[in-house]
Design the sequence.
């Protein structure tokens, strides 16, 4: 089979590795528009289950990813001068740059052709059996057929900047600060021996009130460094070259598609779906898409059947994650509802932010119920059952219910600071 992957991010590279491992006679080319070694973003988080799954599919790259990741067991929140710590599940961080370097080296060693600085748009796609649009959230291949794919985007209210820092956090760290223009917060985690990721977020009024919308390059970073000097221990923040070395602010776009394929063109990773960064799942989902697509192509020699199976499988797996991401984004947009709770309660509810029930129950009552539920399996089951029912009831009343309600149910979902409630 001849395959062209457009986009050399995690989705495109990992798919090319899996297909080559399945059948070395496949002819596979990855076209990436940017030069090799240049990528946006800093470190990304993931959890142990991902590493285990990657070991099943390609032990060699999984070993390299594990060796180049750092890990932590604690979540820490700084709020109103108090620090709350919680021992939780082991989380991992790896630099996006290193992740892509490992995947590219492995793909090349297996015989995949990697063509850097080769941007591909629909008109320029070579004649091939399968075209994989792994070209990210702004996918040109998808946009060209946006009506066919039924692409929808919802832009979040808050502004965020994805930054690096020379401060090496020893845990997953949150800091919430009250300013004269509202709250601003950051979350950071290590991803290498000398770097951490630091995501800064605030409401649009706070963003303009603090002048972050106008402060370019070094000035914007200096302002953030001053605000977060405590948690950064005086370390630098690092911005993007594309933004004059400063903070590049965005509003997150949640993207969905009604269908994921068109003839021999299939969407994968962020080109197919995005989930809010506050649940730290996009890279994991992109890699899992690659696993599912490779599996479907192996199981079905007939392309339309393989693509239909891939889409069915991944849509079902995504439902709880998309629901969790939506509630998590809303939690941050409704921060004033939670931020005045005692820090211990606030941190506990931060860990529960993906819950469909939480927006509909007074936060203090939810906290108490959650503590009681923690001691009773029956109550935990009841809470899981009730959440989607309450949420879908409210949605049905409020919306014209174009889509089926999504069930968070009992799915295994790991937010960044999993199980902080105690
Ligand atoms: C602030 C923030 C924090 C995040 N943190 C995490 C986290 O902690 N954990 C996690 O799992 N995920 C995280 N994510 C999400 C994650 O970065 C993405 O979900 C993931 O990169 C998707 O992988 P992908 O391969 O689908 O797309 P991408 O990584 O976007 O790769 C697409 C590639 O296609 C290339 N391309 C685009 N157009 C063309 C073209 N026309 N021709 C050729 N090449 C093209 C691009 O240059 C790019 O290299 C975060 C995202 C954000 C915004």
Sequence:
């Amino acid at each position: 089979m001849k395959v062209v992957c457009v986009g050399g991010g995690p989705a495109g590279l990992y798919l090319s590795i899996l297909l080559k491992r399945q059948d070395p006679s496949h002819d596979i080319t990855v076209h990436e528009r940017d030069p090799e070694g240049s990528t946006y973003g800093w470190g990304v988080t993931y959890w142990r289950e991902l590493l285990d799954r990657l070991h099943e599919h390609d032990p060699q790259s999984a070993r390299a990813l594990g060796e180049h990741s750092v890990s932590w067991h604690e979540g820490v929140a700084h709020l109103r001068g108090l620090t709350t710590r919680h021992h939780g599940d082991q989380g991992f961080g790896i630099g996006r740059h290193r992740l892509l370097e490992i995947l590219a080296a492995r793909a090349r060693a297996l015989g995949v052709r990697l063509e850097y600085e080769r941007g591909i748009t629909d008109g320029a796609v070579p004649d091939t059996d399968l075209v994989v649009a792994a070209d990210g959230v702004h996918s040109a291949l998808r946009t060209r057929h946006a009506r066919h794919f039924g692409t929808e985007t919802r832009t979040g209210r808050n502004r965020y900047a994805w930054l690096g820092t020379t401060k090496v956090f020893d845990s997953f760290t949150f800091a919430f600060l009250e300013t004269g223009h509202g709250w601003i917060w950051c979350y950071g985690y290590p991803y290498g021996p000398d770097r951490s990721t630091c995501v800064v977020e605030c409401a649009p009024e706070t963003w303009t009130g603090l002048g972050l919308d106008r402060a370019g390059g070094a000035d914007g970073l200096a302002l953030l460094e001053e605000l977060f000097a405590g948690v950064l221990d005086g370390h630098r923040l690092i911005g993007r070259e594309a933004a004059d070395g400063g903070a590049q602010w965005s509003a997150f776009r949640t993207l969905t598609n009604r269908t994921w394929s068109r003839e021999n063109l299939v969407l994968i990773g962020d080109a197919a779906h995005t989930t809010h960064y506050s649940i730290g799942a996009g890279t994991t989902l992109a890699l899992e898409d690659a696993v599912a697509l490779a599996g479907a192509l192996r199981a079905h020699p007939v392309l339309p059947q393989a693509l239909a199976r891939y889409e069915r499988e991944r849509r079902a797996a995504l439902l709880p994650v998309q629901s969790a991401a939506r509630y998590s984004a809303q939690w941050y947009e409704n921060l004033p509802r939670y931020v005045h709770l005692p820090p211990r309660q606030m941190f506990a509810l931060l860990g529960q932010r993906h819950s469909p029930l939480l927006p509909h129950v007074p936060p203090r009552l939810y906290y108490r119920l959650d503590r009681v539920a923690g001691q009773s399996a029956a109550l935990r089951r009841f809470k899981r059952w009730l959440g989607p029912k309450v949420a879908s009831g409210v949605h049905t009343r409020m919306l014209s219910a174009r889509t089926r309600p999504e069930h968070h149910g009992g799915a295994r979902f790991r937010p960044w600071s999993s199980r902080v409630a105690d």
User: Anything to note?
Assistant: Residues 2-71+91-155+253-323 form a domain with the FAD/NAD(P)-binding domain fold (CATH 3.50.50.60). The two ends are 52 Å apart (CA to CA).
